[in-house]
Design a protein that fits this description.
The chain is built from 14 helices and 12 strands. The chain has 429 residues and is α/β, with parallel strands linked by helices. It has a 10-stranded mixed β-sheet, with helices on one face. Strand 7, helix 7 and strand 8 form a beta-alpha-beta unit. Helix 6 runs parallel beside helix 7 and helix 9 runs antiparallel to helix 14. The longest helix has 20 residues. Bound molecules: S-adenosyl-L-homocysteine and iron/sulfur cluster. Iron/sulfur cluster binds next to helix 5.
Amino acid sequence: MPSPDPVPFPDPAHASADRADGALPLLDLPASGPQDTRPGIADASPQELLSWFADRGEAAFRARQLADHVWSGRAQSFADIHTLPGALRDALEQDYRFYTLTGTERRQADRGLTDKALHTLDDGRVVESVLMRYPARGSRRERTTLCISSQAGCAVGCPFCATGELGLWRDLRTSEIIDQARYWRNELATEGRRLTNIVFMGMGEPLLNADAVLAACAALSDGNRFGLGQRHITVSTSGVVPGIERMAGLRRQYKLAVSLHAARPELRDVLVPLNRKYPLAEVVAAATAYADATGRRVTYEMVMIDRINDTPADAEATAELLRGRLAHVNLIPMNPVAHTPWQPSSPERVEDFATVLRAVGLHTTVRRNRGLDIGAACGQLAAEKAGEPAPVAVQRRRDVIERRSAAALLGGPPTGVADVPGANPGGPA
Ligand code: SAH
Ligand code: SF4
């Protein structure tokens, strides 16, 4: 039998315990159906598979035969693995699911360069993944980046994010995370393309589901399993300090992205409600320790919202907070998808912001939103599926968000920067 899950699954108690103070869920995800209690085959570690075959008196090479088919994409079901005897295929089917995604709806954008998938899980919940194709340019080789989800919904509730409106229904299990990548690897194979990068920037907060996410990262970067290099996997977090510390302790080369969005604590409390639990100063200190431990530059993401976090004072505060650190700043004009009262910053305001950061030597890029027309911002398709919320609920949410941000905008000069250990070590990065 497969070994039991280390974490009971699903675990609603954990979900509600992690609900961030200040989150304002607006929609309910589609109702949950009956669950398939079998783990996914991608949940099974190489050791577990060896034991599974050994328990049946089978040699170790059988485990390798199975793994070859699971990870290469050559089979679409256990029944397809003809090198295994029929009785073993049936036994595998009883204990495991070959795929944990029961259906996928697709939409395209950017003239076929961006593809969005809405995956249905065994209990009827839905999660999204987005594939972005970057053609070769100059000396840069062609890249294909997949953005995957770590949770169905999210407890953090950032007020500009479509996933945040849903609240959290449940964590994904390791195989449900990996199977998004297996799905796309198979699809890409039919185009003769390879997946080159995976980013955890879909639905959910990866480090509030760290056991499953880190197990998925291990499988995705294992040469005998999915086989992507550690440096090609990015974990994006809204700032779960214990999770960042845990990643630093692993001494792996995964890329860390921190969703900063504001360098003023009172504004970050509004934009990323988890800031009340893990304050800015601690987040940046943990991310800096990650950079020190791994030698890898941390990406700080800033969703640029018109006249909310894009003012000259915000640019100065961000420059002060990050100068001298092993950092890269990515400015992302807000995708106006959620029922947010806000608008994206204009290209000019984003450029002015970037100029202030570059002046202190911070490597800064501006990201063009991909797939806007198909709702590529995380959670938008899932929110559409969940239905339109009542207008009165939308209005109430807008009022609360506007009240909170107005109070934060009135807040005095930037504070808290000087408290961050290692801030302003004097000089550009
Ligand atoms: N929960 C994690 C990872 C998923 S969100 C995190 O917050 O980092 C991935 C990225 O998408 C984050 O940087 C998030 O701020 C950004 N994002 C969410 N909603 C957005 C929107 N409406 N427009 C632009 N970026 C958005
Ligand atoms: Fe959750 Fe990230 Fe969306 Fe915030 S931006 S609500 S942390 S998914």
